[in-house]
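Q: Hi! First time doing this. I have a protein sequence and I read that you can turn it into a structure. Is that right? Here it is:
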Amino acid sequence: MLKRWFVAIFLGLVCPAAWPFDPVRLDFEDGFQLDKYRFRGEERPLLRGAARNFDFTVDPGTQYDVWLDTQNASAGRRALAMKIFSDRDDGVKDKIELNVVKHNEPEKLALEGNRARYVAFDFMLDPRYEAPRSWVIHFQAWQCCGKPPPFAIRVAPKRDVNSEIEFRFLVRDDVTERTNPRSEGREIYRMTVARGRWNNMALWLEPSMNDDGRDGRVTLWYNGVQLLDYRGDWGYRPVPTRVQGHKLTADFAVKIGIYRPRQTTVQTIYIDNVRFGPTPASVAR
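A: Yes, that's right. Below is the predicted 3D structure, encoded as structure tokens:
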């Protein structure tokens, strides 16, 4: 009964012809290949697709691997694998993230207009995935530019690298920044994730600002079961001044990968069947 309810409510009956843009669909099968390009003098990975290309955000000095894995796929023959590692602990940012949608693309997530966006993906933590000693982000809706992400899925740090893995769902807004700018944000959900097992995550994302008269939303379906339906602000009011040298806009990027302070732990994550679109039906497989 629960599964039928999820299919009826989440997938809906929306005609593709009514979609305002073509959804992002990444299955990493034929038509996708990994390549490289140069950005500010450094080599970065590039995912070439049949219709468009997707780049990665990589911070300088990050030690990482990215590959199309044929041994661990949710469905089909391949999945995207990302691994991050280091031989030192120094707190400098390490990052390798796939830009599913960038903040300057037409289909972006934004505070203005038709704000709701849906994203779904399969993921698996490698069986040897180490619990971080400091935080790790695997998913973020990042508002351009300069402040911490208004919505992020963080891994809770543990002393023992073999500890269970906990995902923390965190939101931030102007009140958070004003009252406690050094905080991680408000935790709206926490869950344990097993290593070595494929899972499906689907999110309804709708940002909002303080005092704009609308509630934001973060709704989570996990393996077909709704676990979270948060209503409240998450997002920063755009300001004409610059934050850390960047203008703060109403636009968001959606990123999946590994982002952390540099540490000697090792994390490997597999991603498959990434979907991003304007309706629940647009992210269905």
